[in-house]
Structures are given as structure tokens and as C-alpha cells.
Design goal:
Number of helices: 5
Number of strands: 0
Strand content: under 5%
Shape: elongated
Radius of gyration: 21 Å
Distance between the termini: 56 Å
Largest sheet: none
Order of helices and strands: HHHHH
Length: about 130
Amino acid sequence: METLAALETGEGVLHGQLPWLVALLEWASAAIDLAAILLLLVGAGRFILGVVVAELVRRGPERVEKTNRERIELGRYILAGLELFIVSDVIHTALSLRFSDLLFLLLLVIIRSITSYFLERELDTLKKELGRE
């Protein structure tokens, strides 16, 4: 029978009985974090390139339209990256079995959900401005 102290130190059933599974899940979580970072970097790179091209090649309303299209694409990358980070945080919390980690996860999910909500609203506004729905 596990004690509360054992749970607070992260020594749950998985840690004691299946340490190889814990290690595998930690590696999977780290891989998901890296994938999220890579996704954000790709999105940022594409955004920067697109805006530079818009500024150098386009004039007037075309430039603004191209920049807004790039903002929409960047927003999609950010939303996807946030979703991956949430998956990783859920794995970490499930492995740690600490109440403090659960509270931390709850706060992260709330902050990321609010960020996602307002980002999606902004993207919808941009899409309507561009005439796409």
C-alpha cells in the first residue's frame, strides 16, 4: 500500500513496478516538447520570410493582405504548438503524481486555453477581413 509521502515524492506504482515505462514516457514527453518547439520555429521562420517578401515585393493593400495571410498561418502553428505542449504537460503530471503538479497543469491549461481562445478570435477576424471563412 502506497503512502501519501510516497505519492508526494513521485514514487507511485509506475515508478516502483514499471520504471522502464516511466523512462519511456519521459522520453516521449521530451520528444513531444521538441516537436512543439520545432513546429513553433518552423512557423516563425515561415512568418518572417513571408513578411519580408510582402514588404519587399508587394505594395499597398497587397502588402497588408499578404502580411495578414502570414499572421493566420503563424497563428495555426502557435495553436498546434500549444496543443502539443499540453499533451507533454499531461504526461509529466500523470507520471509525477504530485498534487502541486496537478495544480500547475491546471493553471497551464487555463492560460493556454485563454491564449488559444483569443488567438482563434483574432485569426477569425483576419480571415473575415480577407474574405475567407
